[in-house]
Design a protein that fits this description.
Blueprint: E1 7-13, E2 46-50, H1 59-62, E3 65-67, E4 87-91, E5 95-99, E6 105-109, E7 115-119, E8 150-157, E9 163-166, H2 173-180, E10 198-203, E11 209-214, H3 230-233, E12 241-247, H4 256-270, E13 279-284, H5 291-304, E14 314-317, H6 326-339, E15 367-370, E16 376-379, H7 381-388, H8 395-408, H9 410-417, E17 424-427, E18 430-433
Parallel strand pairs: 1-3, 2-4, 9-11, 9-12, 12-13, 13-14, 16-17
Antiparallel strand pairs: 1-8, 2-7, 5-6, 5-8, 10-11, 15-16, 17-18
């Protein structure tokens, strides 16, 4: 069983802010001793950090839940609670992070040591020292801590390589990688010997160097999931140059030109933008008897079916077994890489806008619906946040929440919708009676 894992779905939960405290000091001539309750501490963030020592997402196979610590509660003497440490989650280079609910890309982590906050901790609730006013010098009001952000994430690993080797199974991609790099991929005379991407570093005779990825063999229908399908097509997306390896000996009984068309069709079907990447055709197994004649026919078919205004891709005849033509191929690949810039993996429509942790001014402050049992249900980010941060153990805090609802227009909206005195109103699991 392969120990390579390149996709994972996980849940992250940032820490809640600590609750504020209600406390009073004992001091002569100060009402009730004066407020002395401090604020709660900040909840911990969940932070992804790139670790170049990791190669797969295997760590997320058995550990799918990540929860940061909550902040400490406020203390007496006006002291703040301690803020929680951030939860550091290490991911391999090339990890793309998406929000599972929206499908938007949150970040693309490619640099070693790169950090990104995927869930932000809640702020600490205010203690009663914050609510003192001339009219109410001894308030018995404090806030609960703000809930930490919680979300489900999709992680997708796309290997970091400058050059990708593509082609049908058993065309010699793994053998080529083993010859031009120090990589030791598994090589066998059967289909799908390669079931995980293999990486290797190439150094040319002129001193140029680049990373090459040997990707599992593609077959017709791969873009729809046939064979190893889209499981590894994603790894081609980061490459800047594609080496299209073709078995010119036709040892599998297939036509080399038809192989060339079939693989390009799968790349195009998976992601049209893959066809923007320059290709070099690698005519492999030229040491075999029929290879020279097949290459001649291949070139004729390619020229006949290519747009006369388009530039034909370069073709390099090689033999991985005898090492024929390898130096020329690698020099040409390095030269093409120098002329090819990075490709943008995601456009703006796929990326989530810069995270904003306040309220959307255009979004309604609350929404009203009615449950099957005739209970009025209040919802909305702003309203629910106020509710979660209200300490219902204190009468003053409950009255403050009621005034906030009235100020938001909740009472008037319920009245307009037909709410009558004594009707039940629900926020989450909390129920109260509507008083007209």
């Amino acid at each position: 069983m392969s120990m390579f894992l390149d996709t994972a779905k996980i849940q992250v939960k940032a820490g809640n802010g600590g609750d504020g405290m209600v406390a009073f000091r004992r001091e002569k001539y100060v009402p009730n001793g004066g407020p002395w309750g401090g604020d709660g501490g900040r909840g911990g963030n969940v932070v992804f950090v790139v670790d170049e020592g990791l190669r797969t997402l295997m760590d997320f196979r058995y550990n799918r839940h990540f929860k940061a610590q909550s902040g400490e509660k406020g203390m007496t003497k006006g002291m703040h609670g301690r803020g929680a440490e951030d939860l550091i989650v290490r991911v391999p280079q090339g990890t793309t992070v998406r929000d599972a609910e929206t499908g938007k890309v949150l970040t693309d982590l490619v640099e070693n040591g790169q950090e990104f906050i995927v869930a932000r901790g809640g702020r600490g609730g205010r203690g009663n020292i914050r609510f003192a006013t001339p009219k109410n010098p001894a308030p018995e009001i404090s806030e609960n801590g703000e809930p930490g952000q919680e979300r489900e994430l999709l992680l997708e690993l796309k290997v970091l390589a400058d050059v990708g080797l593509v082609g049908f199974p058993s065309v010699g991609k793994s053998t080529l990688l083993s010859v031009i790099t120090a990589a030791k991929p598994k090589i066998g005379a059967y289909h799908f010997t390669t079931i995980v991407p293999n990486l290797g570093m190439v150094r040319t005779q002129s001193g140029e160097s680049f990373a090459v990825a040997d990707l599992p063999g593609l077959i017709e229908g791969a873009s729809q999931g046939v064979g190893l399908g889209t499981q590894f097509l994603r790894h081609i997306e980061r490459t800047r140059v594609i080496l299209h390896v073709i078995d010119m000996s036709a040892s599998e009984g297939r036509d080399p030109y038809e192989d060339y068309l079939a693989i390009n069709k799968e790349l195009e079907s998976y992601n049209l933008r893959l066809m923007e990447r320059p290709q070099i055709i690698v005519a492999n197994k030229m040491d075999m008897p029929d290879s020279a004649e097949n290459l001649k026919i291949f070139k004729e078919k390619l020229a006949a079916n290519y747009d006369e205004f388009a530039e034909l891709p370069q073709i390099f005849p090689i033999s991985s077994l005898t090492k024929q033509g390898l130096a020329t191929l690698l020099d040409a690949t390095a030269e093409l890489l120098d002329k090819t810039s990075e490709f943008l993996l995601y456009d703006e429509s796929e990326m989530e806008e810069e995270a904003y942790y306040g309220f959307d001014e255009e979004a309604p402050a609350f929404e009203i619906s009615r449950d099957d049992d005739a209970t009025w249900v209040l919802s909305g980010d702003k309203l629910e946040k106020l509710f979660n941060m209200t300490n219902f153990d204190r009468d003053e805090a409950v009255m403050k929440f009621a005034r906030q609802l009235r100020g938001m227009g909740v009472d008037e909206a319920l009245r307009t919708r037909g709410a009558k005195d004594g009707d039940l109103v629900r926020i989450g699991k909390f129920e109260f009676e509507f008083v007209d």
